[in-house]
Every structure is written in C-alpha cells, then in structure tokens.
Design a protein that fits this description.
elongated; about 50% strand; mainly beta; 30 strands; about 10% helix
C-alpha cells in the first residue's frame, strides 16, 4: 500500500548514464504494457548527446504517468558504443482510472469559481495534469481573495486494483489584508499618491494579481525606477509591499536647432528651432506638464500644451487635456483641444477622448485648397508596452492604436465664392485612424536594432489641405523639412541600428521609408519618400547632446547632398 501511494505521488527514482556518452546518439525505447489495447507514445529519436537522450526518456516516462500510467518506470538502459545507440525499456504498467473525486471540505464559494464537477472524475482515465490544473485554479483564486497561504491536497485516497477514489482537503490559512506601501530610497514621490496609483488599498483582501498589476503599473512611470526587486512582507494578518526606488532625471528643458535649405530664398539656409519644457511628477504627485513651441519656417509655428492628472479622485482614471496650434504661414490657423481619460491596467492603457478641431483661413485664398471647418470628434485608444527601460529601451515592444470619428461642419467664408460651397456637403462624418508599433531587439551587449511602423488615415468626402496630417522632420520622416507633406494617408517604416558606448550615449544609422498620399481637393498626390542618415546622442554634464545628419529622396527628386538636413540639440534633464 505504501509503495502504491509513493508511486501516485510521482516521486521519480534517479537513474545514471555515464557522462562519457557525448557522441551523436540514436535513441530506441521499448514500452512494455499490461494494458490492452495500448498505444505507444512517439518520441524524438535522434539526439546530439547522451544527456539529451536521457532527458527524452524521462520526459516519456512523465508523459505516460500523465495519461494514467502511474506505475510507469524505466526498467533498463543500455548503451551500444559500436552503433552509438541508447536502448531503454520502459514498463508502463496498467492505466489507472478515477472512480470518484469528492469535493471534501472545499468551500462552496471556491467550488463555484473553479467550476469543479464530480462527473469529470467518474469512470474516466486518471490525468495527473488535470489534478495539477485543479489545484492551481483553487490556489490562484485563494491567493487573489485574501488567502495566499492556502493549500489543497488529495485525501482519503483509496485504491482497488487500478481504480482510485479520493477527496479534496482544503486549508485556507490566515486571512490576509493589504496594509501600507513601504518605500526605501529617494524616489521623490509621495507614498499616499503611489499607493493610490498602484491600486493597493489599505484594508482590502490580499491579491497576488493586484501585486503583479501594481509592479506593471510601476514600470510605466518614467520618473522612478526600481533599484532592486520588490519584497512582499507578511506580518500577522497584514501584507506589506516594499519597493526599492530611486528618482530618475526626467524633467526636461530641450533646445533643438535645425539647419536646412531655405525653400523661400534660393541658396540660403533656414534656421529652425524648438523649445520644450516637460515636468514629470511635480511636487511628488505624478502629474505631467508639457510645453512645446516650434518655429518651422519664418511665418510657420507650432505650439503644444498638455496637462495630465493621475488617478483623479481615486477613480483609477488619469485625466488630461491638451491644446495644439498650427499656424501655417499666412494661409490658415488650426486649433485642437482634447480631453482624454486614461485607464492603465495590466492589459495596457485604454483611452477615451473627446475633442474639437477648428480651422480658420487667415487671408483671401489664392486657390481653394483650404477651407474653414469645425470637427467635433470622439475616440478610443489603446496602448501597451513591454520595455526593459521606458526612457532608453534596449529590448521590448510598444503598440499604440487610436480611432476617432465625429461630425465635420464646413463654414462659409465671404472670401470664398458661394459657388464653391454648392458642390460640398457642409455636414459630414469624418473618420481617423492612427497606429504605431515599435520593436527593440538587443543584438549584442552594446548594440540594438530599433524597428518602427507608423500609419494614419483620414476618411471624409470633403478633405482639404488644412484637414490633413503633417509629415516630415526629425520625429516623423527624417531628411525632410517639418510639415513638408500634407497627407490623408501615410505609412512610415523605420530601421535604426544603435551602438551604445555609455548608459545614455549611442551612435546610430537609420533608414526611413514611407508611402504617403493626399486625397484632398486640389492637393491630390502620392509619393514614396525615404530618408537616410546617421547621428550621435551622448550625455554631458549639461545634458544630452544630439546631432543628426539626414538626406531625403522622393520619386521625382533623388537624394541630393545640397538638400541635406542637420539637426542638433541639447536635452537638459533634472
């Protein structure tokens, strides 16, 4: 009896294979069984060495035990050195069957959640993995509902021949509740804010899933990082999550300067500039303040303002607003206002958006490629990332999707003849889709391959140039001026190879390839632009200095060295 119970517990006896068996080996296993009918399991026959072959024998033994042959064991192993063959005899015995598995003292609440059914264990083949899966399901439910020390065992085991009866024996252990979050290190973040943001409420039943979710949420915060892995401390009936954090320099004051050919004056260079101020976690509350201004051409400017408030009123939602202005020389002024609610979770961040985009002409148009309009839109977005470092990743991926739809209203303007509006639908539905995928491959100790694909599409029956995406420049398509392309559809592929020589310093070469198209009235075109270049980003005491040299080409305009673009800037982090 003790022998059978011992075998049911699946304790494997140790077997010895001489270590000198290191040549290419052919494995032959003979399975002996008392069962009828009996179907032999397949296995891998060719192995590079004896260790691999022996591992395959052990795996085969476990597979037989898993399908009910609990007494399966290795009876004999013989190595034929002349033929380089390893012979094994595996005695499976007879397959065991369930007679019954009773619920025992498993609580009704747990029983309902794990979908335990007696019929599954009546007159059916014994499956070891089935028992393990049940145990895992019960313990997972328990550890997520206040009982991290719960246990489940088979009890009252009764064997007659090759038939088996048993009952479940459940022990819940102490009921545990969350207590306060513990922080060690100079993180520069308030403990009360971080505990709310990580959704670990004091007094709530302990949940291992919530701990794992908290650690994933923690990894998305750019202004802190873990100096070492977190500890989970249990004391009496309380659980404490202890984090070892340090502050990261993520607040930025950036000055970026571009030098490129002047399209308005031949043989002259144009100096462009961008100033950015970004404050993460001011006063330790996790907020974001973002201010960005850019001079693209002599009379073309962009301005972006953004504010984000995390975990508003302890709802779990991050609420933010942003404002964007584009003044395109003396042609038009576009203003965008957006309100966004973000819900970060272990499955990624979900966004809900509402916004208003208005475009107004600044002067009497020379053509009718632009028009006054209002666009009230609603949208939803999804973002998920798995990066080893959110600021300077070397490995991992990121995906971001956004869908918008809303009502577009064309406004009449006395500067445009009334006949122009006769052929237009003054009210229509507009659709917009944006997608981005980034992938970082660590190709060596000092090298990384960065791949990115970005795409966008605008669908509307009355598109004008001032409705479109603006493509070109350092952040979208290098080798071209900012806002060089006004497009309704685009897809940009990027490949960038980086050589890291310090923590925040690297050399890189890149290639950008794009397909762009405009379906706007009076501005329809399609093209296949591309950009090539190299650059350097290195850390100094004053900040991170960046230098990029880029060349761009199109279908009708191949690469020309005289049209090269030079971007350089200093990112001060504090």
């Amino acid at each position: 009896m003790y022998k059978i119970v011992f075998l049911i517990s699946l304790w494997l006896s140790a077997c010895y294979v001489p270590p000198e068996l290191l040549a290419q080996i052919q494995l032959q296993v003979v399975a002996q069984s008392e069962a009828s009918p009996f179907k032999a399991l397949s296995y891998q026959k060719n192995h590079k060495d004896s260790l691999s072959a022996f591992a395959e024998i052990q795996n085969l033994q476990l597979r037989y035990q898993d399908i009910g042959y609990l007494l399966a064991k290795i009876k004999k192993i013989h190595y034929d050195s002349t033929k380089q063959q390893l012979h094994a005899v595996l005695a499976t015995g007879q397959a065991f069957q369930w007679v019954a598995l009773r619920r025992g003292n498993l609580p009704a609440e747990v029983l309902q959640k794990v979908h335990f059914k007696d019929k599954i264990y009546q007159q059916t083949a014994f499956r070891y993995r089935q028992v393990i899966a049940l145990k895992r399901e019960v313990l997972t439910y328990s550890e997520n509902h206040g009982y991290p020390f719960a246990s489940l065992m088979l009890d009252s085991i009764h064997i007659e021949g090759h038939h088996l009866k048993a009952s479940l024996n459940y022990k819940s252990g102490t009921f545990i509740r969350f207590d306060t979050l513990l922080i060690e290190g100079k993180a520069g973040v308030r403990t009360d804010f971080l505990q709310r943001y990580l959704r670990l409420k004091k007094g709530e039943p302990f949940s291992q899933a919530k701990v794992e979710q908290a650690l994933r949420l923690l990894s998305t915060l750019p202004y802190i990082r873990e100096s070492k892995p977190a500890d989970l401390i249990f004391k009496d009936d309380r659980a404490y999550l202890k984090l070892y954090l340090e502050k990261r320099k993520t607040d930025e004051a950036d000055l970026l300067v571009g030098l490129m050919p002047n399209e308005e004056q031949e043989n002259r260079m144009l100096l462009t500039g961008q100033l950015l101020l970004r404050f993460h976690n001011p006063f330790g509350g996790g907020k974001l303040i973002h201010i960005e201004g850019q001079r693209i051409r002599s009379e073309t400017q962009r301005l972006r303002l953004e504010y984000k408030h995390p975990n508003l009123f302890n709802t779990g939602f991050d609420v933010g607003g942003d404002f964007f202005m584009l003044k395109e020389d003396t042609t038009f002024l576009r203003l965008e206002r957006n309100l966004t609610m973000r819900y970060p979770s272990k499955y990624g961040e979900i966004r809900f958006m509402i916004g208003l985009e208005t475009t107004r002409l600044l002067a009497a148009p020379r053509d009718f490629r632009h028009i006054d309009s209002d666009y009230l839109h609603y949208g939803i977005g999804y973002r998920r990332l798995a990066l080893d470092d959110i600021l300077l990743p070397r490995k991992g991926w990121l995906i971001d999707l956004q869908i918008q739809t809303g009502n577009k209203r064309i406004l009449t303007n006395t500067l445009i003849p009334e006949a122009v509006y006769d052929t237009l639908a003054l009210k229509s539905t507009q659709f917009r889709l944006l997608a981005e995928l980034e992938y970082f491959i660590k190709t060596g100790n000092l090298t990384t391959l960065y791949l990115r694909n970005r795409a966008g599409i605008i669908v509307n029956e009355n598109l004008f140039r001032n409705d479109l995406f603006t493509i070109g420049g350092l952040k979208t398509l290098r080798g071209f001026n900012e806002n060089f392309f006004f497009v309704s559809d685009y897809n940009i592929l990027t490949a960038e190879f980086r050589l890291h020589f310090e923590e925040n310093s690297f050399l890189f070469v890149f290639a950008d390839a794009a397909w762009v198209r405009s379906r706007a009235s009076g501005s329809a075109f399609s093209d296949l632009p591309y950009g090539l270049g190299a650059g350097l980003s290195f850390s100094t005491q004053a900040g991170i200095f960046t230098f990029v040299y880029a060349l761009g080409g199109q279908q009708e305009q191949p690469i020309n060295l005289r049209l090269s673009k030079i971007h350089f800037g200093l990112v001060g982090r504090f």
